[in-house]
Amino acid sequence: MSALFDSKTKSMDDRGIRALLSDDHKYQSWLDVEAALATAQGELGVIPREAAAQIASACQLKNIDLEEVQKLQEKIGHGFVPFLKALVRACPGDSGKYVHLGVTTQNIQQSAQLLVTRKVHNKFLVVTHDILHNLAALAEQHAQTVMPGRTHGRHAIPITYGFKVAVWIDEILSAAARLEESEKRVFRVMMGGAVGAFNASGNTGRKVQTRVAGLLNMQEMSVPSRNIGTHKVEYVMALSLLASVCHKMAEEVYATTLEEIGEVIEGFRAGTVGSSTMPHKINPKLAKGIIANAQKLYSLPAVMMSACCRPYEADSSAYMLLESSLHEALQLMTEIVLRAEELTRCLHVNPQKMSANAEINHGLDNSEFVMMQLASTLGKDQAHAKVYEMAIDANLNGKEFMQCLQKDKQVSALFTTDELKQMLIPHNYTGEAANIALEQAQRARGVAQAQE
Fold first, then answer.
1. Which of 413, 431, 414, 415 shows the shortest CA–CA distance to 366?
2. pLDDT band at 275 (very low <50, low <70, confident <90, very high)
3. What span, in angstroms and rounded, lies between the C-alpha atoms of 152 and 188?
4. pLDDT attached to residue 371
5. From 27, 109, 177, 245, which residue has the greatest number of CB atoms within 10 Å?
6. C-alpha distance from residue 311 to each of 110, 197, 227, 324 (Å)
7. Exposed (0-12), middle (13-18) or buried (19+): which is 225, by Cβ within 10 Å?
8. Distance (Å, rounded) from C-alpha 367 to C-alpha 189?
9. For 261, phi and psi rounded to 5 degrees?
């Protein structure tokens, strides 16, 4: 397998995704496309209807002798012809002579891989909607949970944890919409023959392709050229953007689960071992798996784009690379979304630690609040200069920011001590964070429920 596994993933409910990525399902998808081809040709009078029905009935993996297929592959050196010979033998009477008429290997295999990809895609969306439900619950529960906002790795101004989750929701929604919008371009069949011009089947072949697409509930390629692969790149790029959001969530968990920060921790099952030598270790297994698999996934679109640029009407170096890369991308994304669903469902948030961390700078994080209050009298530029001087003095010289404010005659003349204290409380300066969290939670639930 190309995805990066550990013991954690083996215990997950994979929603049946891994079975779809098995060799057996790949072979059955070839047969499904051959069955659709024969059915379409029977309906359009290209082959006898009875023969079409017999071929379609024979297109079950149990009817294919895979051991014999392997022996033939070693003998004739072709990856698909032996499979076709086994299918021909499985067809009753003389119906086998109508198998695979007017098409070429890649018509079947590429169409079949996208048929499988669409099934996996649908399951990805289901898991993604579960992630949205999980995030909605987190955003609602922690809409008012104050914590430090951080920029460039250091404290900025206060936010709420619900606001942080709202950011993830917004990006997940965009990623899911992007995947759904790509469906009409990605999940397409090709039945154009050797170079995609329907040389062997003519205009009837175009009608056959349209019917095959309908039977498989897919779209069709306007130009069924084997040299077109950008739709597959588009899909893997869309997966990469969804992976990037999951990666961001995982990085946030990974960074804030540190004991020194302690704001969140992954769900933990009794008996799980984090280290063979350090008994105390509780590692962020879900997060690290998301990070590793996402980083590997990002490399695939570039590889696939290089394959799309091969010359002429077809090149095995191109479609072999596209096929393997797409399959690997599906494996990697499986690991990512399953881990992300469990991570968001089982995450433990520590509001007390978040609040304590927001107070760690003794009011400095609210310097913008003080500046904005001063700006109404002094103007923005002068207010910034004054607060900057006091904030840096407190920061570099170990002074209390409150004392610096009180000692300034201009500040103390404008504000009472109690007013200054109120300005320095993190909970008093979170802006629209809570409202945004609740809005995004509602939006996430709406989209997820609409797809159920």
1. 431
2. very low
3. 44
4. 97
5. 245
6. 18, 17, 8, 20
7. middle
8. 60
9. -105, -55
Per-residue b/e over 236-251, b at no fewer than 16 CB within 10 Å?
Answer: bbbbbebbbbbbbbbe
Give per-residue pLDDT as tens, 42-60.
Answer: 999 999 999 999 999 999 9
For the segment 12-31, the average pLDDT, to the nearest whole number, is 95
Q: Where are the beta strands (DSSP E) in 211-319?
A: 219-220, 264-265
Dist CA 74 CA 11 (whole Å): 37
Q: How far is CA 323 from CA 119, 268, 435, in A?
A: 16, 37, 45
Using 50, 70 and 90 to split pLDDT, how confident is the model at 365?
very high
Q: How far apart are the first and last CA of the chain?
A: 31
Q: Residue 220 is encoded by which pair of tokens?
A: 């069709």
* Whole-angstrom distance, CA of residue 182 vs CA of residue 178: 6
In the DSSP assignment, the letter for residue 405 is H
Q: At 154, which helix (H) or strand (E)?
A: strand 154-160
Q: 147: part of which helix (H) or strand (E)?
A: strand 146-151
The predicted-structure confidence for 122-169, as pLDDT tens digits, reads as follows: 999 999 999 999 999 999 999 999 999 999 999 999 999 999 999 999
| C-beta of residue 161 within 8 angstroms of C-beta of residue 147 | yes
Q: Picking from 33-37, 278-282, 330-334, which range would have the lowest pLDDT averaged per residue?
A: 278-282
Burial class (CB in 10 A: 0-12, 13-18, 19+), 155: middle
Question: What is the pLDDT at residue 274?
Answer: 53
Smallest CA-to-CA distance from 135 within 236, 17, 253, 240 is with 253
Burial 66-101 (b: 16+ CB within 10 A, else e): eeebeebeeeeeeebebbbbbbbebbeeebbebbbb
Label residue 1 by pLDDT band (50, 70, 90): very low
Question: Alpha-carbon distance 13 to 337, whole Å?
Answer: 12
The pLDDT, as a whole number, for residue 9 is 53
Residue 13 is predicted with a pLDDT of 86
* AA identity, residue 371: M
